């Protein structure tokens, strides 16, 4: 609904009336334009997220006749890495696989237990202007054994994926964006830690690292999202983004997910999640019942909008140093 001038004032003459009709038409045209210039199409995002979550959780085949009941064994994780690789490639990204091998803490144990081996899948959405700054946005794709991991963390994967598409389509990017899907978060952050070491070795200038984990539960319907251990700057960034969207935010000190891998190496980092500390988080956590139909797709879409809005601000902020 929009506000109409003609209802509020006396119409002086036919000429005046015509002028007001024209003015009204002009106002409505502007409103239509404003809607069209918003590239974030909610229905489309939700449809794509639902489909991705169904493929990641075995409701739909991830490839030909392959249905996943979890994303935990080396074979299952290989299927997911392949799926993410192919999807990104099809959507026009230049995709890379980061294979890692991490020994057990006590080297002798390698003789009895296999070292950790896995694959992070990533792409870099390049800046449209010269800069050496990178923003990292990631989510883990593995799940606990025996759990389809819809909430944990097919939701985070589909969130990051949709934000990547928005970034790809942005006319201006003042920073590079590393989009990464981590392996083996459930094994004490093995995948994200390996990735953090890799970017440190490369000497990349990382503005900040953002990770999304469990964003599909909102039983109390308040739409609230938790910011895990944000720096002051990142907290302010998300609050600016949330204000425009009417999303309540809570700050927590939770470190038990991928953002910790980056903070540990000294990078500014933040985690995003549903109300894990504030008591409105999925009751299906790490269970066989963490299925696609338990996901709140509206909440997920709003969380996606929030992260996109934060990334959009970062993309539009010129490099300071
Ligand atoms: Zn998780």
Question: Please, could you describe this protein's structure?
Answer:
The chain is 40% helix and 17% strand. It is α/β, with parallel strands linked by helices. The protein has one domain (65-316): 3-Layer(aba) Sandwich (Aminopeptidase), CATH 3.40.630. An 8-stranded mixed β-sheet has the order 1-2-4-3-5-8-6-7, with helices on both faces. The longest helix has 24 residues, at 14-37. It is globular. It starts with 13 loop residues before the first helix and ends in a 5-residue tail after the last helix. The model is unreliable at 1-13 and 25-37 (pLDDT under 50). The protein binds zinc ion. Zinc ion (ZN) binds at residues 140, 152-153, 185, 213-214, 257.
Q: What order do the SSEs take from the amino end to the carboxyl end, as H and E?
A: HHHEEEHEHEEHEHEH
Strand order of the largest sheet: 1-2-4-3-5-8-6-7
- Which ligands are bound? zinc ion
Largest β sheet strand count, sense and barrel closure: 8 strands, mixed
Give the overall shape. globular
What is the CATH class? Answer: Alpha Beta
Structural class: alpha/beta
Bin the strand percentage.
15-25%
């Amino acid at each position: 609904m929009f506000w109409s001038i003609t209802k509020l004032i006396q119409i002086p003459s036919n000429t005046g009336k015509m002028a007001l009709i024209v003015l009204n038409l002009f106002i409505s045209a502007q409103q239509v334009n404003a809607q069209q210039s918003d590239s974030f199409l909610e229905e489309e995002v939700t449809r794509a997220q639902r489909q991705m979550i169904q493929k990641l959780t075995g409701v739909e085949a991830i490839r030909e006749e392959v249905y996943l009941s979890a994303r935990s064994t080396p074979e299952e994780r290989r299927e997911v890495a392949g799926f993410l690789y192919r999807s990104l490639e099809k959507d026009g990204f230049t995709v890379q696989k980061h294979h890692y091998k991490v020994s057990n803490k006590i080297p002798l144990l390698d003789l009895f237990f296999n070292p950790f081996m896995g694959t992070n899948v990533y792409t870099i959405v390049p800046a449209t202007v010269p800069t050496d700054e990178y923003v990292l946005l990631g989510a883990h794709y593995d799940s606990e054994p025996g759990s389809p991991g819809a909430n944990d963390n097919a939701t985070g994967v589909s969130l990051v994926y949709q934000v990547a598409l928005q970034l790809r389509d942005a006319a201006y990017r003042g920073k590079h964006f590393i989009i990464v899907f981590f392996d083996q978060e459930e094994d004490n952050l093995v995948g994200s830690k390996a990735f953090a070491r890799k970017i440190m070795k490369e000497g990349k200038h990382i503005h900040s690292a953002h990770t999304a984990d469990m964003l599909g539960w909102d039983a109390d319907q308040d739409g609230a999202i938790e910011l895990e251990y944000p720096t002051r700057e990142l907290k302010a960034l998300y609050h600016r983004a949330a204000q425009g969207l009417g999303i309540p935010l809570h700050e927590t000190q939770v470190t038990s997910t991928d953002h910790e891998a980056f903070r540990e190496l000294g990078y500014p980092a933040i985690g995003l999640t549903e109300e894990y500390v504030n008591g409105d988080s999925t009751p299906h956590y790490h269970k066989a019942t963490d299925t696609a139909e338990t996901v709140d797709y509206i909440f997920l879409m709003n969380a996606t909008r929030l992260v996109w809005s934060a990334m959009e601000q970062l993309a539009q902020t010129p490099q300071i140093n």
